[in-house]
Design a protein that fits this description.
Blueprint: E1 2-3, E2 9-10, H1 12-20, H2 37-40, H3 76-87, H4 110-116, H5 119-122, H6 134-151, E3 155-157, H7 163-180, E4 187-191, H8 197-205, E5 208-212, H9 222-231, E6 236-242, H10 254-263, E7 267-271, E8 291-293, H11 296-299, E9 314-316, E10 328-332, E11 335-339, H12 362-398, E12 415-417, H13 429-438, E13 445-446, E14 456-458, H14 466-484, H15 489-492, H16 505-510
Parallel strand pairs: 4-5, 4-6, 6-7, 7-8
Antiparallel strand pairs: 1-2, 3-9, 8-9, 10-11, 12-14, 13-14
Helix pairs in contact: 4-12, 6-12, 7-8, 9-10, 12-14
Protein name: glycine dehydrogenase (aminomethyl-transferring)
Keywords: Oxidoreductase, Pyridoxal phosphate
Organism: Pseudovibrio axinellae
Length: about 525
């Protein structure tokens, strides 16, 4: 006899019948089976009454559609139900702990959403006259001041739309600065533990990428950097380093590395994706960086993912400040001036061009500044401390059962395990991650960073309570013990309880089916005598 959470006794037989019970609709109470919208929609339905159009002369010529738009039509209630049901199949930070390492999926305070929806911010248009939106530019300027104060820098490019876009901005500023000095440099140094966008960005801008190996402890050695600099004397344009790095560790020789790259005439680009671990604790400018993008959608409020929106402002040192792209905001005796064209330039301003048509992501700016102002300097510092504390809480709670590739030492905002604890269990890293779905958790980041075989990167963020972390740790421990006990059946077919079973994700990514095609009608074979 077992007891459910409501205290009513439930026999094992009853539980078994409940688990296997089949329904006529395919629904399982509130877990509803939802066909594709193309399968439930009909062209003779419409949720909106549309008047017949008056006669008009089309101007599309040969581009005029020859057939009706092949879209499903639903009534308004059917449309609402369809998307509500779909939304229930999404895992979200509002549903539970999201342990993706390196992605910072944390709670977004609803105050920030309310501020972003104020008409003076939400309803403005990028093409309306600047004179009609002084408040928006004042907010952008205020946010820029906060970013420069938090990073210890003197300039910031606000317009980049996301992290990789910010990387491109910083590297283009570096390339422009090198050209302004009349130099030709062709090499960018990138550690093996870097985000994949780092070498991609360097190559996109036109540089050759030279990799720097990580030490056994997961960090970058200044000696390894100097060795590469000497091997490519006079050709090193920049170093792209993530700090804290993607192994969840702070680079202990970051100042020495910055000095080495500067002495060689190069620039230090810092990937700021993990800035949320050190906000209020350390200023990257004091560590010697020349450029660093900041993922507003990670560090300051808005969980990213699902394609956006993102925002990736780039802070710049004095060495790179003159090359910040257009547009930017200049302060003249407390008056704000929006610099959009080269004829507005003053002094040593030499922007390399524009990164985007307009000014960036206004909604992200509002959310980020709301987050900063509601926390204050002490609150931002505490958020970083809590992010690091939570990651170490998980590390300590699991290190006796799971394996740490760099030993049992403190981590930063995320903790990195490898899959060697699964050796000889018959359970793969993928199996383990899929079994987490049955327990109600999104899997952690898997197989990244590449410097660790079978990597499992977990980032709880600062917004999880101790009770939430305790349940996660207990769940992970149960899964590990089950794997070590030989219960491969729990893993090899997981997830068992999700709306859909395990998918062929590789084929789905490489050969996506982007257009729905109605299946051929089933032919009924005549019965034979």
């Amino acid at each position: 006899m077992t007891m459910n959470h409501q205290g009513r006794s439930t026999s094992a037989g009853e539980a078994g019948r409940s688990a296997s019970h089949q329904t006529f609709t395919g629904n399982r109470a509130l877990d509803m089976e939802e066909p594709l919208i193309f399968e439930i929609g009909h062209m003779d339905n419409c949720g909106v009454d549309l008047d017949e159009t008056a006669d008009f002369a089309p101007r599309l010529g040969s581009h005029m559609r020859q057939e009706i738009v092949d879209l499903p039509a639903l009534s308004e209630p059917e449309t609402m139900r369809h998307y509500v049901r779909l939304s229930r199949n999404n895992y979200a930070i509002d549903a539970g702990l999201y342990p993706l390492g390196s992605c910072t999926m944390k709670h977004n305070p609803r105050l920030n959403e309310k501020m972003a929806r104020l008409p003076g911010f939400a309803d403005i248009h990028p093409l309306q006259p600047i004179s009609t939106v002084p408040g928006a530019f004042e907010l952008i300027s205020e946010l820029a001041d906060w970013l420069m104060e938090l990073t210890g820098t003197n300039a910031v490019a606000m317009s980049p739309k996301a992290g990789a876009h910010g990387e491109q901005c910083g590297m283009m500023a570096i390339k422009h600065a090198i050209a302004a000095k009349g130099e030709e440099r062709s090499i960018v140094l990138v550690p093996e533990s870097a985000h994949g966008t780092n070498p991609a960005t360097a190559a996109l801008v036109g540089y050759k990428v030279v990799s720097i190996p990580a030490r056994d402890d997961g960090t970058v050695s200044v000696d390894a950097v100097v060795e590469k600099i000497e091997a490519h004397a006079g050709q090193v344009a920049a170093l792209m380093l993530t700090n804290p790095n993607t192994c969840g560790l702070f680079e202990p020789e970051v100042i020495e590395i910055a000095n080495a790259i500067h002495e060689a005439g190069g620039y230090f680009y810092c990937d700021g994706a993990n800035f949320n671990a050190i906000v209020g604790k350390a200023k990257p400018g004091d560590l010697g960086i020349d450029a660093m993008h900041i993922n507003l959608h990670k560090t300051f409020s808005t969980p990213h993912g699902g394609g956006g929106p993102g925002s990736g402002p780039v802070v710049l040192s004095d060495r790179l400040a003159p090359y910040a792209p257009l547009p930017f905001i200049r302060k003249n005796n407390e008056e704000l001036e929006v610099v959009e064209t080269t004829d507005q330039l003053q002094g040593n301003e030499q922007p390399f061009g524009r990164m985007t048509a307009f000014f960036g992501q206004m909604g992200m700016y509002v959310r980020a500044l709301s987050y900063m102002m509601s926390h204050g300097s002490d609150g931002l510092k505490q958020a970083s401390e809590d992010a690091v504390l939570n990651a170490n809480y998980i590390r300590v709670g699991l290190q006796d059962l799971m394996t740490l590739p760099f030993g049992e030492k403190p981590c930063m905002h995320e903790v990195l395990f490898d899959d060697s604890f699964l050796n000889d269990t018959g359970v793969s890293t993928l199996d383990f991650a899929k079994a987490m779905i049955d327990e109600g958790y999104h899997p952690m980041t898997m197989y990244f960073p590449l410097v660790v075989s079978g990597a499992m990167l977990i980032e709880p963020t600062e917004s999880e309570s101790r009770a939430s972390l305790d349940l996660f740790v207990a769940t992970m421990r149960d899964l590990v013990m089950s794997a070590k006990a030989g219960d491969t059946g729990r893993f090899e077919g997981a997830p068992y309880l999700a709306p859909r079973r395990r998918l062929d994700e590789t084929t789905a990514a490489r050969k996506p089916i982007l257009k729905w095609v109605a299946p051929e009608p089933t032919k009924v074979q005549p019965e034979t005598a």
